[in-house]
Write a structure and sequence with these properties.
By secondary structure, the chain is α+β, with helices and mostly antiparallel strands. It is about 35% helix and about 15% strand.
Length: about 200
């Protein structure tokens, strides 16, 4: 049989262990929150406005969509109207502008904010690769390597990969490593040594 003091002591031990466990969980969650806030101090968010391309109307026609004018002058130089398009998206252009303005930072990614009749608005996330908090964190210190300098200019961000056609599935194998790389590989003659 258990005495009354044994029951009270076991109850107090369980209660104290439960309280201690809650204190430890609260301290750990507070530590994670503070570390995430400390980690966010070295992420920079840049707000950019990119002017939208002009729209073609019956009265005024843009260079990219010269379909309403019906007449071109200076043939054949100005006759081509189908290929006069910017190959990349405005989001990629925003990343390029931010990377050129802040050369000491690395572009991580970007996202669309808003759009009106004249501009599209984006935010670009940039990281300081020379800061100790970034260099010591194994989750993000991959961007400190020299091979990630100006990755936005080489189509290595998310927007750049979309514009390069870097997708998975049928028909996308000709896009890797690049259009020019695939063309060059297909132009070279490759023969087996013993055939």
């Amino acid at each position: 049989y258990f005495s009354f003091l044994d029951i009270i002591s076991s109850f107090l031990v369980c209660l104290l262990s439960h309280i201690l466990l809650h204190i430890l969980l609260f301290a750990y969650s507070l530590f994670l929150l503070m570390s995430s806030l400390f980690f966010l101090f070295f992420f920079f968010f840049f707000f950019l406005m990119i002017r939208r391309p002009p729209r073609s109307t019956l009265s005024s026609s843009s260079a990219a969509s010269d379909v309403y004018k019906r007449q071109v002058y200076g043939k054949p130089r100005n006759a081509g109207v189908n290929a006069l398009k910017f190959r990349r998206s405005l989001r990629s252009k925003a990343e390029e502008k931010a990377g050129q303005r802040c050369g000491n930072l690395r572009v991580l990614n970007s996202y669309w904010i808003n759009a009106d009749a004249t501009y599209k608005y984006f935010e670009v996330i940039m990281i300081d690769p020379s800061h100790k908090a970034i260099r010591r964190d194994p989750r993000i210190n991959w961007i400190c390597q020299p091979t990630h300098k100006h990755r936005e200019l080489r189509g290595l961000t998310s927007a750049g990969k979309q514009n390069r056609g870097m997708a998975k599935g049928h028909g996308h194998n000709k896009r890797r490593p690049s259009r020019f790389g695939t063309w060059k590989r297909q132009q070279q003659l490759s023969l087996r040594r013993y055939r």
